[in-house]
Structure formats: structure tokens, C-alpha cells
Amino acid sequence: MLEALEPFGLGDFTSLITEIQLQNWGKTLVIQGLYDPHGQNLPFTLTLHQCYDIRWQPLSPDLNPALPDSEPADLIDLQLQTQGDRSTAIFYTDLFELTVGYDRLTCHTTPTSLSLISA
């Protein structure tokens, strides 16, 4: 269970990260995923706005996310932390760890959309 995704209705089952895109010269990070791939199969998008720090740590030297046939990453844990006026999201997967400093986080799912605004 991923408690950080519960406010979006995505915390009870497995989630996969299928794609990550940098937009607006790195100010916006868009993470595409699939919630409950063996059941509901619900696509979701997490968007981190006004990013000020992005750190990527591959867990395998063979990982090349630029390849079109790259496998999805199992989202093992997501931690959302706030300290003062700074927010940080830490994504732990089986393929990489991703740490992002951001101002606002939104989540969109199909068919419904939910949004959580962080300071």
C-alpha cells in the first residue's frame, strides 16, 4: 500500500511507472503510470510543478529509459515530505530512485481527476 497515493484513490494496489517526461526546461516533471495493472488497469498522471531539484539514481547500470521498449518500473514506495516552504517527493522503484523538489503536485486519473496541492 502506498499511503502517499491514498488521497488520489491510488493507494491500495500495485502501481507501475510507465513514462517520465521533463517539460518547461525542467520546471515540470510528468510521471505517467498504471494503477492496479492486474485489475482496474487505471492510467494516472502525477505532475510536479515548479521543480527546483531533480535527482535520478538508476539501480542498474544497464537501465536506459530512452529506449522505446523500456520496461515499466514497479513503484515500491512514494514519500511526500514538506519542510517549511519546500516539498520533496521521493519515488522508490525496482529500477531507479527519483527525488524531486517541487512547489505543487497534481494527480489525474481516468475517468476521474483528483488534485492535491502541496505548499
TrEMBL record:
Record's protein name: Uncharacterized protein
Taxonomic path: Bacteria, Bacillati, Cyanobacteriota, Cyanophyceae, Prochlorotrichales
